[in-house]
Amino acid sequence: xxxxxxxxxxxxxxxxxxxxxxxxxxxxxxxxxxxxxxxxxxxxxxxxxxxxxxxxxxxxxxxxxxxxxxxxxxxxxxxxxxxxxxxxxxxxxxxxxxxxxxxxxxxxxxxxxxxxxxxxxxxxxxxxxxxxxxxxxxxxxxxxxxxxxxxxxxxxxxxxxxxxxxxxxxxxxxxxxxxxxxxxxxxxxxxxxxxxxxxxxxxxxxxxxxxxxxxxxxxxxxxxxxxxxxxxxxxxxxxxxxxxxxxxxxxxxxxxxxxxxxxxxxxxxxxxxxxxxxxxxxxxxxx
Length: 287
Hints:
Blueprint: H1 10-17, H2 37-42, H3 52-62, E1 68-69, E2 82-83, E3 100-102, H4 104-116, H5 125-129, E4 134-138, E5 152-155, E6 163-169, E7 172-175, E8 184-187, E9 194-200, E10 208-210, E11 216-219, E12 228-232, E13 237-239, E14 242-251, E15 254-262, E16 267-270
Parallel strand pairs: 1-3
Antiparallel strand pairs: 2-3, 4-9, 5-6, 5-9, 6-7, 7-8, 10-13, 11-12, 14-15, 15-16
Helix pairs in contact: 3-4
Protein backbone atom coordinates (compact mmCIF):
# COMPACT_ATOMS: atom_id res chain seq x y z
CA UNK A 1 0.00 0.00 0.00
CA UNK A 2 0.98 3.61 -0.18
CA UNK A 3 2.30 6.21 2.19
CA UNK A 4 -0.46 8.80 1.95
CA UNK A 5 -1.42 12.08 3.48
CA UNK A 6 -4.41 10.49 5.13
CA UNK A 7 -3.93 6.96 6.47
CA UNK A 8 -6.37 4.27 5.47
CA UNK A 9 -7.35 1.84 8.23
CA UNK A 10 -6.36 -1.81 8.10
CA UNK A 11 -9.90 -2.99 7.34
CA UNK A 12 -10.25 -0.63 4.38
CA UNK A 13 -6.82 -1.64 3.16
CA UNK A 14 -7.76 -5.32 3.11
CA UNK A 15 -10.94 -4.56 1.19
CA UNK A 16 -9.12 -2.50 -1.40
CA UNK A 17 -6.46 -5.19 -1.81
CA UNK A 18 -9.05 -7.56 -3.27
CA UNK A 19 -9.39 -5.30 -6.30
CA UNK A 20 -5.71 -4.91 -7.06
CA UNK A 21 -5.42 -7.97 -9.29
CA UNK A 22 -7.96 -6.39 -11.63
CA UNK A 23 -5.95 -3.26 -12.30
CA UNK A 24 -5.02 -3.86 -15.95
CA UNK A 25 -4.71 -7.56 -15.04
CA UNK A 26 -1.46 -8.69 -16.60
CA UNK A 27 1.97 -7.65 -15.50
CA UNK A 28 4.62 -6.31 -17.81
CA UNK A 29 8.37 -6.43 -17.99
CA UNK A 30 9.97 -4.04 -15.55
CA UNK A 31 10.24 -0.63 -17.21
CA UNK A 32 13.66 0.86 -17.76
CA UNK A 33 14.58 3.14 -14.90
CA UNK A 34 15.20 6.77 -15.77
CA UNK A 35 17.49 8.17 -13.09
CA UNK A 36 20.49 10.41 -12.91
CA UNK A 37 23.90 8.80 -12.54
CA UNK A 38 24.18 10.26 -9.04
CA UNK A 39 20.86 8.72 -7.95
CA UNK A 40 21.70 5.36 -9.50
CA UNK A 41 25.05 5.27 -7.70
CA UNK A 42 23.38 6.08 -4.39
CA UNK A 43 21.11 3.02 -4.56
CA UNK A 44 22.73 -0.25 -3.60
CA UNK A 45 24.00 -2.32 -0.70
CA UNK A 46 25.56 0.31 1.57
CA UNK A 47 26.63 -1.90 4.51
CA UNK A 48 28.02 -5.44 5.02
CA UNK A 49 26.36 -8.43 6.66
CA UNK A 50 23.20 -9.03 4.62
CA UNK A 51 22.26 -12.42 3.21
CA UNK A 52 22.75 -13.10 -0.48
CA UNK A 53 18.97 -13.03 -0.99
CA UNK A 54 18.66 -9.68 0.78
CA UNK A 55 21.45 -8.18 -1.33
CA UNK A 56 19.72 -9.44 -4.49
CA UNK A 57 16.44 -7.86 -3.32
CA UNK A 58 18.21 -4.53 -2.85
CA UNK A 59 19.67 -4.81 -6.34
CA UNK A 60 16.30 -5.62 -7.90
CA UNK A 61 14.64 -2.66 -6.16
CA UNK A 62 17.44 -0.29 -7.17
CA UNK A 63 16.97 -1.24 -10.81
CA UNK A 64 13.54 0.42 -10.55
CA UNK A 65 14.83 3.85 -9.53
CA UNK A 66 12.91 6.44 -11.56
CA UNK A 67 9.91 4.17 -12.24
CA UNK A 68 6.52 5.69 -11.31
CA UNK A 69 4.83 5.12 -7.99
CA UNK A 70 1.29 4.03 -8.83
CA UNK A 71 -1.32 3.02 -6.25
CA UNK A 72 -1.99 -0.73 -6.41
CA UNK A 73 0.90 -1.18 -8.85
CA UNK A 74 2.76 -4.48 -8.68
CA UNK A 75 -0.18 -6.55 -7.46
CA UNK A 76 -1.07 -8.49 -10.59
CA UNK A 77 -1.16 -12.27 -10.86
CA UNK A 78 2.65 -12.32 -10.98
CA UNK A 79 5.16 -9.93 -9.37
CA UNK A 80 6.05 -7.02 -11.63
CA UNK A 81 4.88 -3.54 -12.59
CA UNK A 82 1.21 -2.94 -13.43
CA UNK A 83 -0.94 0.10 -14.09
CA UNK A 84 -2.38 1.55 -10.89
CA UNK A 85 -5.72 2.72 -9.61
CA UNK A 86 -7.17 5.92 -8.21
CA UNK A 87 -6.80 6.09 -4.45
CA UNK A 88 -10.02 7.71 -3.15
CA UNK A 89 -8.08 9.35 -0.31
CA UNK A 90 -5.37 10.94 -2.50
CA UNK A 91 -6.14 13.43 -5.32
CA UNK A 92 -2.55 13.03 -6.58
CA UNK A 93 -3.43 9.49 -7.73
CA UNK A 94 -5.72 10.71 -10.55
CA UNK A 95 -3.17 9.69 -13.19
CA UNK A 96 -2.10 6.41 -11.57
CA UNK A 97 -4.25 4.30 -13.96
CA UNK A 98 -2.06 5.69 -16.78
CA UNK A 99 1.25 4.92 -15.03
CA UNK A 100 3.05 1.57 -15.14
CA UNK A 101 4.86 0.98 -11.88
CA UNK A 102 4.64 -0.09 -8.25
CA UNK A 103 3.23 0.98 -4.95
CA UNK A 104 5.33 0.42 -1.82
CA UNK A 105 4.41 -3.22 -1.22
CA UNK A 106 4.37 -3.97 -4.94
CA UNK A 107 8.04 -2.94 -5.11
CA UNK A 108 8.92 -5.09 -2.08
CA UNK A 109 7.05 -8.04 -3.58
CA UNK A 110 8.91 -7.68 -6.89
CA UNK A 111 12.33 -7.27 -5.24
CA UNK A 112 12.04 -10.44 -3.17
CA UNK A 113 10.53 -12.35 -6.08
CA UNK A 114 13.64 -11.48 -8.09
CA UNK A 115 15.87 -12.41 -5.16
CA UNK A 116 14.31 -15.67 -4.02
CA UNK A 117 12.06 -16.87 -6.84
CA UNK A 118 8.41 -17.74 -6.37
CA UNK A 119 6.26 -15.10 -4.68
CA UNK A 120 7.38 -15.01 -1.03
CA UNK A 121 5.93 -11.59 -0.09
CA UNK A 122 2.48 -11.14 -1.67
CA UNK A 123 -0.19 -8.89 -0.22
CA UNK A 124 -0.03 -5.36 1.08
CA UNK A 125 2.39 -3.69 3.50
CA UNK A 126 0.55 -5.12 6.52
CA UNK A 127 0.82 -8.68 5.22
CA UNK A 128 4.50 -8.26 4.38
CA UNK A 129 5.31 -6.89 7.84
CA UNK A 130 3.55 -9.92 9.38
CA UNK A 131 4.70 -12.46 6.79
CA UNK A 132 5.66 -16.02 7.79
CA UNK A 133 8.92 -15.26 5.98
CA UNK A 134 9.93 -12.84 8.76
CA UNK A 135 13.01 -14.12 10.56
CA UNK A 136 13.59 -11.26 13.03
CA UNK A 137 11.80 -8.13 14.22
CA UNK A 138 13.17 -4.76 15.36
CA UNK A 139 11.26 -2.17 17.36
CA UNK A 140 11.03 1.48 16.41
CA UNK A 141 13.09 2.36 19.49
CA UNK A 142 16.05 0.35 18.15
CA UNK A 143 16.41 2.70 15.18
CA UNK A 144 18.66 1.63 12.32
CA UNK A 145 21.60 0.35 14.44
CA UNK A 146 20.71 -3.39 14.19
CA UNK A 147 19.45 -3.26 10.59
CA UNK A 148 21.07 -4.82 7.53
CA UNK A 149 20.50 -4.11 3.82
CA UNK A 150 17.33 -5.81 2.63
CA UNK A 151 15.46 -5.38 5.92
CA UNK A 152 11.94 -3.97 5.54
CA UNK A 153 11.04 -0.76 7.36
CA UNK A 154 7.37 -0.09 8.09
CA UNK A 155 5.12 2.78 9.15
CA UNK A 156 1.72 2.61 10.83
CA UNK A 157 0.00 2.81 14.19
CA UNK A 158 -2.72 1.04 16.11
CA UNK A 159 -1.89 -2.27 14.46
CA UNK A 160 -2.18 -0.96 10.89
CA UNK A 161 0.75 -0.70 8.48
CA UNK A 162 0.37 1.76 5.59
CA UNK A 163 3.90 2.00 4.15
CA UNK A 164 6.94 -0.23 3.70
CA UNK A 165 10.43 0.30 2.26
CA UNK A 166 13.72 -1.57 1.79
CA UNK A 167 16.75 -0.63 3.88
CA UNK A 168 20.05 -0.06 2.04
CA UNK A 169 22.37 0.65 4.97
CA UNK A 170 23.98 3.92 6.10
CA UNK A 171 20.58 5.36 7.06
CA UNK A 172 19.21 5.10 3.50
CA UNK A 173 16.27 3.23 1.99
CA UNK A 174 14.70 2.68 -1.42
CA UNK A 175 10.95 3.22 -1.59
CA UNK A 176 7.89 3.75 -3.72
CA UNK A 177 6.51 6.56 -1.59
CA UNK A 178 3.32 8.14 -2.93
CA UNK A 179 1.37 9.13 -6.04
CA UNK A 180 3.02 11.77 -8.20
CA UNK A 181 6.54 10.58 -7.32
CA UNK A 182 8.96 8.00 -8.66
CA UNK A 183 10.84 5.20 -6.92
CA UNK A 184 13.76 6.81 -5.13
CA UNK A 185 16.41 6.60 -2.42
CA UNK A 186 15.43 8.43 0.79
CA UNK A 187 16.79 9.04 4.25
CA UNK A 188 15.17 6.68 6.75
CA UNK A 189 12.36 8.47 8.60
CA UNK A 190 12.39 7.33 12.23
CA UNK A 191 9.86 9.86 13.53
CA UNK A 192 6.10 9.96 13.25
CA UNK A 193 4.46 6.55 13.11
CA UNK A 194 7.56 4.51 12.25
CA UNK A 195 6.63 1.03 13.49
CA UNK A 196 9.92 -0.86 13.26
CA UNK A 197 11.53 -3.27 10.82
CA UNK A 198 11.67 -6.95 9.91
CA UNK A 199 14.31 -9.21 8.41
CA UNK A 200 13.19 -11.71 5.80
CA UNK A 201 14.42 -15.30 6.19
CA UNK A 202 16.90 -16.25 3.46
CA UNK A 203 15.21 -19.64 3.13
CA UNK A 204 11.73 -21.02 3.73
CA UNK A 205 10.86 -20.84 7.42
CA UNK A 206 9.59 -23.96 9.26
CA UNK A 207 5.86 -24.55 9.07
CA UNK A 208 5.40 -22.83 5.70
CA UNK A 209 3.52 -24.27 2.77
CA UNK A 210 2.36 -22.98 -0.59
CA UNK A 211 -1.20 -22.48 -1.75
CA UNK A 212 -2.19 -23.29 -5.31
CA UNK A 213 -4.99 -22.20 -7.64
CA UNK A 214 -6.24 -18.70 -8.39
CA UNK A 215 -8.68 -16.44 -6.52
CA UNK A 216 -8.69 -18.67 -3.43
CA UNK A 217 -10.41 -17.19 -0.37
CA UNK A 218 -9.76 -17.74 3.32
CA UNK A 219 -12.66 -17.73 5.78
CA UNK A 220 -13.27 -16.47 9.31
CA UNK A 221 -14.21 -19.99 10.42
CA UNK A 222 -13.42 -23.44 8.90
CA UNK A 223 -16.57 -23.28 6.81
CA UNK A 224 -17.39 -21.92 3.35
CA UNK A 225 -20.51 -20.36 4.87
CA UNK A 226 -18.49 -18.08 7.16
CA UNK A 227 -17.36 -14.61 6.02
CA UNK A 228 -14.52 -14.34 3.52
CA UNK A 229 -11.34 -12.73 4.86
CA UNK A 230 -8.54 -12.68 2.27
CA UNK A 231 -8.15 -13.59 -1.41
CA UNK A 232 -4.98 -15.24 -2.76
CA UNK A 233 -4.85 -14.26 -6.45
CA UNK A 234 -2.30 -17.00 -7.15
CA UNK A 235 0.12 -19.40 -5.43
CA UNK A 236 1.29 -17.87 -2.14
CA UNK A 237 3.66 -18.94 0.63
CA UNK A 238 1.79 -19.13 3.95
CA UNK A 239 2.52 -20.23 7.52
CA UNK A 240 0.14 -22.80 9.01
CA UNK A 241 -0.27 -22.90 12.78
CA UNK A 242 -2.51 -25.95 13.03
CA UNK A 243 -5.23 -27.93 11.20
CA UNK A 244 -8.56 -29.51 12.12
CA UNK A 245 -11.40 -31.56 10.69
CA UNK A 246 -14.46 -29.42 10.00
CA UNK A 247 -16.85 -28.83 7.07
CA UNK A 248 -16.21 -31.17 4.10
CA UNK A 249 -15.46 -29.22 0.91
CA UNK A 250 -15.53 -30.43 -2.68
CA UNK A 251 -13.46 -28.42 -5.17
CA UNK A 252 -11.08 -29.02 -8.08
CA UNK A 253 -12.13 -32.68 -8.17
CA UNK A 254 -11.22 -33.29 -4.49
CA UNK A 255 -13.24 -33.66 -1.29
CA UNK A 256 -11.59 -32.94 2.06
CA UNK A 257 -12.80 -31.96 5.53
CA UNK A 258 -9.39 -30.68 6.72
CA UNK A 259 -8.87 -26.94 7.24
CA UNK A 260 -5.69 -25.06 8.14
CA UNK A 261 -5.40 -21.94 10.31
CA UNK A 262 -3.24 -19.09 8.94
CA UNK A 263 -2.22 -16.88 11.90
CA UNK A 264 -0.91 -14.00 9.76
CA UNK A 265 -4.35 -13.69 8.15
CA UNK A 266 -6.44 -14.68 11.18
CA UNK A 267 -8.46 -17.04 9.02
CA UNK A 268 -8.91 -20.59 7.69
CA UNK A 269 -8.32 -22.24 4.33
CA UNK A 270 -9.44 -25.65 3.13
CA UNK A 271 -6.50 -28.03 2.76
CA UNK A 272 -7.61 -28.65 -0.81
CA UNK A 273 -5.76 -25.49 -1.77
CA UNK A 274 -2.59 -26.28 0.23
CA UNK A 275 0.14 -28.17 -1.61
CA UNK A 276 0.69 -31.42 0.26
CA UNK A 277 -1.24 -34.36 1.63
CA UNK A 278 -4.94 -34.09 2.48
CA UNK A 279 -3.87 -34.02 6.15
CA UNK A 280 -0.61 -32.05 6.22
CA UNK A 281 2.49 -33.78 7.56
CA UNK A 282 4.11 -32.16 10.56
CA UNK A 283 1.25 -29.74 11.27
CA UNK A 284 -0.41 -30.14 14.71
CA UNK A 285 -4.12 -30.53 15.26
CA UNK A 286 -5.87 -27.36 16.45
CA UNK A 287 -7.24 -27.57 20.00
